Amino acid sequence: EPEKVLPQLNPQIASLIAQGKGINNIQYIYEFGPSSNYKTFMTEKSYTVYLKGDKVRKVYVDVAKFGKDIFYNEVYLDLSQKTAYGICNIKTISCDNLQGEAHKVDFEVEKLPITPMEILNDVTPEALILRQEWFDQRNTTLIQFLNRKSQFEYLNLDTFYGLPMRQVISVVQENEERMLTQTTFTDIAVGHLEEKDVVLPSGYKVVDN
User: Fold this and answer.
1) CA distances from 17 to 3, 30, 79, 106 (A)
2) SS3 breakdown of the chain: % helix, strand, coil, rounded to 5?
3) Does 10 score more than 70 pLDDT?
4) Torsion angle of alpha carbons 33, 55, 165, 109, nearest 10°?
5) How many CA atoms lie within 13 A of 170 on its CB side?
6) Nearest 5°: phi and psi at 5?
7) Could you write out the DSSP letters of every residue in 162-206?
8) What is the pLDDT of residues 140-183, one digit of tens each?
9) What is the H or E stretch that residue 25 is in?
10) What's the CA gap between 87 and 71, in Å, rounded?
11) What angle do CA 132, 150, 15 make, to 5 degrees?
């Protein structure tokens, strides 16, 4: 019986993925949203991520709420310890009585749903290059593949960092391609973060609620 020849990942895609997978010092704006009409997307979640090793700081545009009267706009995550602490450091009425306090919040709720580096692990050997595209003022290579859920996945891979800047998931129903979700990672900066950018500043009183 002849040996089955396994498909090999396109060398250009493989090279980009190898570049992106090794990154562990990065900041970006994360946005995620479903499609309302299978064509355009709404933004459901949005925040800035600062990631260095196993430490993460998330900064929300708006104040988030935890429990009855605890508000926060920044979260400090320790991925190895699985802890999350929220602080409120903007001048709003909801934050007034929380200044200087770091409250324990739910790690499972606050952990990052996905990182650009993790998305690269799911690219299948059958991935095809569709074209070069300009996205968020950067050069990207648009690739397409059928993911493990049998959905079409499109990734705009940054040609310099090898990281996905946009992920679009779609399915074909009734002979029509329907867009389901879009995730974007924009304003990417790699390699600039220091420890102080991702750990809780000193002077905060830690409250385990």
Assistant:
1) 27, 19, 23, 32
2) 15, 50, 35
3) yes
4) -10
5) 17
6) -95, 115
7) --EEEEEEEEEETTEEEEEEEEEEEEEEES---GGGTSPPTTPEE
8) 999 999 998 999 999 999 999 999 999 999 998 888 889 999 99
9) strand 25-34
10) 8
11) 35
